[in-house]
Structures are given as C-alpha cells and as structure tokens.
Amino acid sequence: MSEQSQAPYGQNTSAPAGTSLPSRVRIPHLARAKAEGRHFAMLTAYDCQIASIFDEAGIEVLLVGDSAASTMMGASSTLPITMEEMIVFARSVVAGTKRALVVCDMPFGSYEVSVEQAVANGIRLLKEAGVHAVKLEGGARYAPHVEAMTAAGVPVMGHIGFTPQSEHVLGGYRIQGRGEAAQVMIDDALALQDAGSFCVLMEMVPTEAARAVDAALRVPTIGIGAGPVTTGQVLVWQDMLGLGSGRNPRFVKKYAELRPLITSAAAAYLHDVHAGTFPGPEHGFE
C-alpha cells in the first residue's frame, strides 16, 4: 500500500511538511495515528455546507452527532431524535465530504433493545445515509452488539464515560471515571475493543483516567473533556465557533465568535430593507 494511502491526515495545509495526504481518511489511518503518536481532529456536522467547509479544512473525522437534537432541533437533550432524522442529517453530511471519515451516532432507542436491532439500524445508517461508521454509547454490556455489528460489516466507535443518552440514569451531566470507577472504564473500553470497536470516545472524564484507558487500548481514543492524552479530540462545531448563547462547558475552546457577527449582519440587512436601500440598482435585472 502506498505512503499516500497510509497517511493519517486529511487534506490539510497545516499537516507536517512532507506528509502525504490520503484521498479518503479511513479507519486504518486513525489506527496509524495512534501507533505513531500523532493526533487527529473530529468535529460534529449536520449539513452539507458545514461538512464541506470542515472537509476542505482537513478535519479528519466528522461526527453526525445525536446532538443535532439540541443544536439543530431545539430539544433539551439528545433523546428525542429518531433514526429517520439522523439519516437525513447524515446523508447531508456525506454529500458535503470528499476526504473526511463520516461517523453517525446511533440515536437513543435504536440499539438498546437487542443485538438484532443494533445490527439492523447500523446497516440502515451505512446503506441509507452512506456513512462510514457508527457510534454507540455504553460499555461492556454492548460488546455483543458491537461484535455482531462488526461481523455484519458495520464499523463501530464506542463511547464511554459520560454518555448523554443515559443522563437520567447518571443523574445529570456529571464527570465519570473518578476513583475506582476508572478501572470500570478501562474494563469497558477493553470489552468494546475486543468486540471489534475501532475507536473509543471518552466524554467528561479525569485526564488520568483517560490516560489509563488510552494506555490499555490498541485502538485510538477520542476525547471530549478528557484532557490532551487521547489520540483524537472532538467538539460540537457550534460550541467551537461561538454560535451558542449560553455558557460553554469547561472543555470547549472557542476558535471564533460567530454569534455576534451573524447577529450584526442580520441587523444590517434588516436596516437596509426597512430603509429601502436593499435591493439597490446593482441587485436588479434590466
């Protein structure tokens, strides 16, 4: 296999000098990143236009998150979103990408009932939306689901630590993996890896617990609120670009403040329409 196809990067002008760029980021590229001590970036995406921007920027992995329930649909949690809605969002993201690996969340209620349900819905996401892999929340309990899905040709990313779909069981948004619970996380991560997960995401866990999990695994890890010790990092794009109006979680770094900029542009448009200065002669036809 060529050096180009092995490289763990997307098309990114900030990639290290001399690094070849793959035509499509795939699961082995992420594994190679971990083996060579490199990092990769993942962002959420829910539509074609944003996906194409992130793809052009070189983001290696795009996550069609069930966070769309809140960021795109106004729900107070991730729980209400359906498979049909996830398929629409995911299909839009796939249409906007050329190089990024696209992963789609399995929404709440789409895999918990049985192994057979998980396999059927995983196949739907690959077949109907065109994504390259799926993500499901939970530890060792879902190892049989992961094993069956992988055997059926559905690549699976695991998700441990804080799992938003279980927020009511967990008692809200709480840090997971402190003290003796760190060993449970390690055991869960190993069970997912051994069942076939190609990667394990950790959310809202202490850095040292994340370090222990990453050291125990052969497969890459991705962190969100898990410190700098994971192979990959993920953020919700609206948080990363300052689009929200509320307080961001501690683990979010804002790389831009889009909300004031968009608000100002909309207000300027409103002013011009009210004043009759838009559209001007240059915006019309003879």
Protein model, in words:
With 286 residues, the chain is α/β, with parallel strands linked by helices. It has a single domain, classed as TIM Barrel (Alpha-Beta Barrel). It has helices spanning 3-6, 27-35, 48-57, 68-71, 83-95, 115-129, 143-151, 167-170, 181-195, 207-216, 237-240, 258-275, and strands spanning 40-44, 61-64, 101-105, 133-137, 156-161, 199-203, 221-224, 232-235. Helix 7 links the parallel strand 4 and strand 5 (156-161). The longest helix is centred in the last third of the chain and has 18 residues, at 258-275. The radius of gyration is 20 Å and the shape is globular.
Give the helices and strands, then pairings.
Elements: H1 3-6, H2 27-35, E1 40-44, H3 48-57, E2 61-64, H4 68-71, H5 83-95, E3 101-105, H6 115-129, E4 133-137, H7 143-151, E5 156-161, H8 167-170, H9 181-195, E6 199-203, H10 207-216, E7 221-224, E8 232-235, H11 237-240, H12 258-275
Parallel strand pairs: 1-2, 1-8, 2-3, 3-4, 4-5, 5-6, 6-7, 7-8
Helix pairs in contact: 3-5, 5-6, 6-7, 7-9, 9-10
